[in-house]
Every structure is written in C-alpha cells, then in structure tokens.
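Appendix C. Worked example: TIGR02281 family clan AA aspartic protease
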Amino acid sequence: MARFVLILLFFIGITPFLPNLLQKFAPQLAAGNIQSAKTADIDETPGGDRKHRISANYQGQFVDLFKVNGQTVEMLVDTGATHTVLPESVARDVGIFPKAADYKYAIRTANGTVYGAMAVIDGMRIGSIRLKNLDALVLKDQSLGQPLLGMSALNQLDRFDISNGTLVLVQ
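Step 2, the predicted output written as structure tokens:
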C-alpha cells in the first residue's frame, strides 16, 4: 500500500509541469523528429529565407534527420561529395529501386572504386527547407555505411555556411 501512495504522490508532484513539457515537445513528436529538434534550430528570416541550423556532433560532423520521399533518414552533410548518396537499403526504404544493370557508374571513394546507380530523389525536407528532384547515387550497402547529403542537394540552396561548429542551410 505504501508503494502505491508513493507512486501517487510522485504523479501528483509532476502534474503541474506536464503542460509545459508537452507544449515544448509535442510538435517535434508529431513530426517524428525529436532528435533534429534537439540538435538543430529552424527559422525563417524576415526576408522569407528559410534556414536550418545543424550543430556539429562530437566528431565534428554535421548529421541530422531528413525526410527523403516522406521517410525519415539520418544523413551526414558532406560538402566534399559531388552527389547525394544513398546505400541501397535506404534507397529501397524511400522508394528507389535500381536494377542490377543500373550500377554502371564508376565512383572513386577513399576505399577504392565502386559502382553506383543514378537516381532521382523526388523530394527532401529538413526543417522548413524543401528540395525537389535531386540527383543522387545509390551504392551497394557494403560500399556506403551512411547516407550522404552532397553538393547535388546543397547547390539547390541559396547558400550554406559553417561557423562556430554550426552549419546553416539557407533557402
């Protein structure tokens, strides 16, 4: 009985704080993007520019959650990559299904030459930024561990800037 009373008192004690917590996190939970809300800032400037900020992780990399063809995908922003690149399993998850014969484009990577398939991502979203008809490459899963957001996507932005450990994307 004492355990029940303690649990009841605990819930009575936190009840006044619940509205503030729910108000703070409900939009992110509804969007399925709680990690992005913690690590990035989304805003629009008075001129109508859409911005999204991504803080560097502990390795100094810019990683965030993107909506790719409506599916949530964690991607590494790579300004050194010419194309946006998806592992084959992620490509399938977002509705891109290259055939074996499509893997005909030689790609030089740090691990040697691999073959990729050209694809088009219909739509991508991060925060308020919307991109359409992105050229992309699909690589076999063993050739690429994490999806990369490359210059084929970044070139569709008005600009991007890195300062003080934060990447700012502006559209």
